[in-house]
Write a structure and sequence with these properties.
By secondary structure, this protein is an alpha+beta fold. 32% of the residues lie in helices and 38% in strands.
Length: 248
């Protein structure tokens, strides 16, 4: 078969992959901060001569959050393309009103488990906020069709590329007396370092969603240039501090 014939009989399939991503949830004195990078990786495969051959991957920028003031729920996701489907279904079907904490966790797990899995090896994570609870979030996680009980987040949690050294920042600098203003900067800083450590998989700015004591969501996008500026300023201050400490 000639190359021309192969190309004629080939089909292209696009699949979004979210494994190289970074999300963070931080609980403060006056609400919750949920943040995510914006880089998506679209993998395009070609079916030729009876088998799949990966052709190329294409990065693009878009949000990894679902939120709507009228739905009382917000989500962000990490993992395979299944993770987005799980988040969408929780967002559309997971009405939390009138539910206890246990009932709400059970509903999230039931909805998440109902989404078919395309790959039994993928780890998918969804962080969920509900407007009535500004003191905790829930993380749903599964590998293939095997899910763990939803985990309640009362301090801080990172999802996605958790192996990056940047996760140390959120764990080390978070304090229970922090306000959302400080937590927003901590989330941006953590994801900014994640982008510096893994520039091919994390980046394109940061989406920040906050939930205050009045049960109101607020959303904003921080451009990558501003994220880098915050990280570079922190770098400079940290280096100066190290120089002072090293002289003691």
């Amino acid at each position: 078969m000639s190359q021309t014939e192969i190309l004629r009989t080939s089909t292209i399939e696009a699949q979004e992959e979210f494994g190289v991503t970074l999300q963070i949830a931080l609980v403060g004195t006056d609400g919750i901060v949920l943040a995510s990078d914006r880089r998506h990786i679209e993998v395009r495969n070609a079916f030729a001569v009876g088998h799949w051959q990966q052709r190329y991957s294409q990065p693009y920028a878009d949000t990894k959050m679902l939120w709507d003031a009228g739905r009382h729920v917000a989500c962000t996701w990490a993992g395979s393309s299944d993770a987005k489907k799980i988040a969408q279904k929780i967002f559309l079907e997971g009405d939390p009103r009138g539910l206890s904490d246990e009932e709400w966790s059970a509903r999230i797990q039931r909805i998440g488990d109902s989404v078919p899995s395309l790959d039994t090896s993928d780890i998918d994570e969804v962080i969920v906020l509900r407007a009535a609870d500004c003191h905790s979030a829930i993380k749903y996680m599964r590998q293939g069709l095997r899910s763990a009980s939803p985990q309640r987040i009362k301090q801080q949690m990172i999802a996605g590329d958790v192996t990056q050294p940047c996760s140390f920042l959120a764990r080390h600098l978070w304090r229970e007396n922090m306000t959302m203003g400080k937590l927003i900067h901590l989330a941006i800083l953590t994801i900014g370092y994640g982008a510096a450590e893994n520039p091919n998989g994390i980046g394109d700015g940061v989406d920040v969603l906050t939930l205050n004591h009045q049960g109101r969501f607020f959303f904003k996008t921080v451009e990558q240039s501003q994220v880098e500026e915050i990280r570079e300023r922190f770098d400079a201050e940290m280096l100066q501090l190290f120089e002072k400490v090293s002289e003691l």
